[in-house]
Design brief:
5 helices; four-stranded antiparallel sheet; alpha+beta; about 210 residues; 8 strands; 2 domains; four-stranded mixed sheet
């Protein structure tokens, strides 16, 4: 069951001895929670992954949507409902250019066979054959940034990151208040946040390694 944003903020209020939510307004804490999510995603590139169909454009060069940070993989051809078709394999740009110097001018096909990416241009990639007009769809995996959440929403990251977010909210509150700020206590919570996030990264890596062994 997903963790509710309200539950995370209730823990914050309790820690701040403000269970009546008078001193620290919920909107203030919510703003800090959204800052926490943004910080976690920046520090841990695996924290928010998106799997979604991408509508291609004609030609070889394709671009990820606006909420993307970097491409992870292009999995397979699909329809607009995400139903899988032919698998797509990654190839190196140099390999493709050596095998087919004129690959950008190949006969178009809505069924993609290969893709090539450049880490220096993380939000774009190339497909082969070139997409026709109208183009097809492919299933992409990318590192993204979630939209800001509201008080009635679920926590947008995997549940194991909720503890890190809770600690970061406490850090932000105690550091950034115009009055009753407590920088020393704030830094204690920040150190706890970094320790918790480091453990989260290790836990995610262990889970992924376990799945790879299956």
């Amino acid at each position: 069951m997903p963790i509710a944003v309200a539950d995370v903020l209730a823990r914050v209020s309790k820690t701040l001895y403000d269970e009546t939510k008078v001193v620290y307004a919920q909107q203030e804490l919510l703003d800090h929670l959204n800052a926490a999510v943004a910080e976690i995603v920046q520090l841990d590139t695996k924290a928010y992954m998106v799997n979604a169909p991408l509508q291609c454009v004609p030609g070889t060069l394709q671009s990820l949507p606006g909420d993307a940070v970097a491409l992870v993989d292009v999995r397979y051809n699909c329809d607009d409902g995400g139903v899988a078709g032919r698998a797509i394999t990654a190839v190196g740009m140099e390999q493709l250019q050596a095998a087919r110097p004129d690959w950008h001018r190949s006969s178009p096909s809505s069924v993609c066979r290969h893709y090539a990416a450049d880490v220096r241009d993380p939000k774009r990639f190339y497909v082969w054959p070139p997409q026709p007009d109208p183009p097809g769809l492919v299933m992409v995996v990318y590192q993204g940034v979630p939209d800001d959440v509201g008080l009635g929403d679920d926590f947008p990251l995997p549940d194991l990151y909720a503890e890190a977010a809770y600690l970061f909210v406490l850090y932000h509150v105690l550091l950034r208040r115009d009055h009753d700020a407590d920088p020393q206590r704030a830094m204690v919570f920040y150190q706890m946040f970094m320790t918790e996030l480091d453990q989260d990264v290790k836990n995610i890596s262990a889970i992924q390694a376990g799945r790879a062994d299956v």
